[in-house]
Backbone:
C-alpha cells in the first residue's frame, strides 16, 4: 500500500509513521512521497535527508489574475496535487500537520482514502489552535482524533480517539506536548488497521472488521 | 450548606447525591428540597418516601392568555421556583435530569451556585439525547461533564469531566448506562469540592483551590 504524507511543518506524525513502517508496527505499506506546501517545512527536509521522495508543491506557481489582482488558485493547486498522488500510485493520503484545506476534487477522487489527525476530541474544537481552544473553553479533558477527511473542516467519520487530561495549571505548550505524544501512537494504530484492510465506513460510523 | 435538587425523571443522580451525603462523601451539606416540574417523576416519589421535602411545582399553574391562546409562562414559573429556593435558604442548586431550561432570573440570582451534569464531553453534544448524538456522530469516546449553569444550553464553565469509551456495537441504552455510572461518581466529587468551598471560577476556568 502506497502512502503519501502531506505536511506543512516539522511533521512529527510523519516521523512516527515512518518509524512504525520501519519497525513493522505498520505493515504492508511504504511512504512513496512526502508533499508540502511549505518549502521550509522541517518535515520535508527530514524526508529529503532520509532519501525519500520529498516534493515541494509551490502555491506561488498556482495563481490567477482577476481585475488585475492576483489570487491563489486553490483548484489548480489541488489538481496538481491530485496529479502527483496519481503519478505516485498513492493508495492512502495521510495528513500530518497539513495546514491547508484539501479541496473537493481531491476528496472525491480519494474518498475514504485520506485520513487526518486532529489534536482534540472532535467534534469539540475543530479547526486551528485546537489545544488553545480547549484551554480557553476550560475543558478538563481533551485528546486527539484520527478521522477520514470529508469536505468539512475536521468533520469526517472518526476512526479512533484517545483522551488526555487538561490540568488546571496547563498552558498551550504543555497540553500540546501531552496530546502530541498520544497522536503518534493513535495515528500509527489507525494506519496499521487501514493498511491491513480492517476499517469499514458506514455513513459516519467507522468500525474494525474482525 | 443547603442543597436543592431539581429533577424531571427518576433522579438517579439525586439518589447518588443523597447516598453520598448520608455516607459522608459529601460533607457539610443537606438536601433541603427536591423540586420537580413532573408530578409523576420517580425521583420526587423517592424523595417523598425518604420523608424529604418533595415539591411538585406544576407548570399548569403558570399560564398567560394572549389573543385567546394559553401559553406557559416561563418567567412566572421560574419566579415561583426562585421563591421556593429562597424560602428554603438554598445555597446550591443541583440539576439532576431537570428537563427544562432555567431562566435568567434564577441564573442571575444563583450565579455560580447552580450546577448540572450532562452526559457528554462538552462542548460536544449539548442539549437533549447527548448519548444518541454521540453514537450518530460516530464518536469513539464520550463521557460526562459537571458544569456551572449559565444562560446557554450546557455552555457554562466546566467543573469536572470524565470519559467513557464508545464501543462499535454500542446502542443508546448501553452507552447511557456506562455514562450514568460515571455521572454518579463525578457529580459527587464535584459537589463535595463545592460544599467544601474549594471551587474557584475565573471566566470560563474552574479550578480547585488548595
Residues:
Amino acid at each position: 500500500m502506497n502512502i503519501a504524507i502531506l505536511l506543512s511543518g516539522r511533521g512529527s506524525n510523519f516521523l512516527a509513521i515512518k518509524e512504525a513502517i520501519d519497525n513493522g508496527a505498520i505493515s504492508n505499506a511504504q511512504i512513496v512521497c512526502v508533499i508540502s506546501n511549505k518549502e521550509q517545512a522541517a518535515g520535508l527536509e527530514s524526508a529529503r535527508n532520509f532519501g525519500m521522495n520529498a516534493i515541494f508543491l509551490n502555491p506561488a506557481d498556482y495563481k490567477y489574475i482577476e481585475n488585475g489582482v492576483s489570487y491563489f488558485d486553490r483548484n489548480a493547486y489541488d489538481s496538481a496535487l491530485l496529479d502527483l498522488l496519481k503519478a505516485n500510485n498513492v493508495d492512502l493520503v495521510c495528513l500530518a500537520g497539513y495546514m491547508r484545506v484539501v479541496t473537493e476534487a481531491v476528496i472525491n477522487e480519494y474518498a475514504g482514502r485520506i485520513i487526518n489527525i486532529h489534536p482534540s476530541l472532535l467534534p469539540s474544537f475543530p479547526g486551528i489552535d485546537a489545544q488553545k481552544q480547549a484551554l480557553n473553553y476550560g475543558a478538563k479533558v481533551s485528546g486527539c482524533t484520527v478521522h477520514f477527511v470529508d469536505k468539512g473542516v475536521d468533520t469526517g467519520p472518526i476512526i479512533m480517539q484517545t483522551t488526555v487530561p487538561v490540568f488546571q495549571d496547563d498552558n498551550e505548550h504543555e497540553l500540546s506536548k501531552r496530546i502530541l505524544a498520544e497522536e503518534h501512537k493513535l495515528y500509527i494504530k489507525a494506519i496499521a488497521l487501514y493498511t491491513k484492510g480492517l476499517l469499514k465506513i458506514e455513513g459516519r460510523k467507522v468500525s474494525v472488521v474482525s
Summary: The longest strand of chain B covers residues 141-148. Residues 2-208 of chain B form a domain with the Rossmann fold fold (CATH 3.40.50.170).
